[in-house]
Amino acid sequence: MSHRGYPKGEDSLESAAFTQSGVQGAGGVPGVLGPASFYRDGGARAIMRAANFPDELLPFLQMEGLAAMDAVCRHECDSLVELGCYDGRALEVARAAGVRYLGVDVNPGAIDSLNRRIGDEGLGDRARAVLGDALHCQEWSSEVTGERPLHLLPFNLVGNFTEPEKVLAGVGGLGGLALISVFNEEPWTTEVRRAYYTACGIGIVEEVPGPYGGVLFRGDQGFRSQSFSSRGVADLLSATGAATVRERTHRLGRCITVRLT
Fold first, then answer.
1. Model confidence over 183-221: pLDDT tens digits?
2. Among the CATH numbers 1.10.10.10, 3.40.50.150, 3.40.50.300, 3.30.360.10, which is that of 31-259?
3. Which domain of life is it from (predicted)?
4. pLDDT value of residue 70
5. Residue 122 CA from chain centroid, whole number
6. Residue 59, Cα to own-chain centre: how many angstroms?
7. Tens digits of per-residue pLDDT, 41-64?
8. How far is CA 240 from each of CA 4, 28, 29, 77, 179, rounded to the nearest angstrom?
9. DSSP conformation letters of the chain
10. Which of 230, 160, 259 is nearest to 202 (CA)?
11. What gap in Å lies between CA 223 and CA 184, rounded to an integer?
């Protein structure tokens, strides 16, 4: 499937060479690492290290936290599910809002560390972290508590996937609301991203127009991240039947609260 007027070959290349979940591309091509492999096998340690964040990135992350708190309080959510949680930054939002927390990540070490932190801080009765993939919600959906969860897809998480609509469709099956944080396509945002990925030690292999109107970076070890234009976001939400409830913007991107169906 080709999106937004970009060449059909672009999506074909993504599907053939970069899969979300492993070391083998479509068609049985061995030895090709995908984004989940990057985050599972150690790349997350560099990409999530605060010391590698450019100064311009911090206000964007602050907006994300405030948007999550606003969504929980405004819509009376009774739990917060953070996908791609790594060190559990949204745990503080859940604690401040007085709601239950579930962190989900593909990195086993991150999950172990977060569960230790939860135990050390005496939050074991209302917080937990589990090993899981955002593409396979059915494998951990039984861990979601409450009737009105907020599913947080932070820090351009959906941009790591070749078909982000599949991620949103899976999350939509869990009910509740979702908060989606994405980078935009502006040149200054691309500059910040490039500097950030370089600081993380990622060797950039390719920087090309992405299928959702933004810029797609591909790097070594299976790294992949795309940004989204306004139209690309609208198309993504339309493809999954999501309805925008509230949106916050920053010069680097946007946080959109949506109701998924």
1. 999 999 999 999 999 999 999 999 999 999 999 999 988
2. 3.40.50.150
3. Bacteria
4. 98
5. 27
6. 18
7. 777 888 888 889 999 999 999 999
8. 16, 28, 29, 22, 14
9. ---TT--HHHHHHHHHH--SSSSB-GGG-BT---HHHHHHTTHHHHHT-GGGS-TTHHHHHHHHHHHHHHHHHHTT-SEEEEET-TTTTTHHHHHHHT-EEEEEES-HHHHHHHHHHHHHTT-TTTEEEEE--TT-GGGTGGG--SSSEEEEE-TTGGGGSS-HHHHHHHHHTT-SEEEEEEE---HHHHHHHHHHHHHTT--EEEEEE-TTEEEEEEEGGG-EEEEE-HHHHHHHHHHHT-EEEEEEEETTEEEEEEE--
10. 160
11. 19
Judge whether 18 and 223 are in contact, CB under 8 Å.
no
Q: For tokens 């797609």, what's the residue?
A: 216
Q: Which amino acid is at 89?
A: R
pTM, rounded to two decimals:
0.86
Phi-psi region of 222 (alpha: psi -120 to 50; beta: other; left: phi over 0): left
Would you say how long the chain is, in residues?
Answer: 261
Q: Say what the pLDDT of residue 132 is.
A: 97
CA distance linking residue 7 with residue 18, whole number of Å: 17
- What pLDDT sits at residue 165? 96
d(CA 229, CA 207): 16
For the chain, which residues make up each domain, given as ranges? 31-259
Give the closest residue to 257 by CA, choosing from 170, 150, 156. 150
pLDDT at 6 over 70: no
Q: Is the dihedral of CA 185, 191, 194, 196 positive or negative?
A: negative
Inter-helix orientation angle 164-172/230-240, to 10°: 50
